[in-house]
Write a structure and sequence with these properties.
The chain is built from one helix and no strands. It is mainly α and 66 residues long.
Length: 66
Amino acid sequence: MNYIPTRRIFLASLAFAALVLVLLAGCALDPVEPTPTPPPPTPTPLPRGGNLTIRMAEDVPELRPW
């Protein structure tokens, strides 16, 4: 008699049962506490209002914005 098909089915079902067992054991574990991280830095407040002065080394002979 040849028991190879029966052996393959047995090994496949054994592997599937082991996979299910590992999956259930992994789901049953308590979750790991996350490591505490420092809070993100707060943005630096930008100054509002005021005058912006731009100085150039030389006078502009002709301003062509296009």
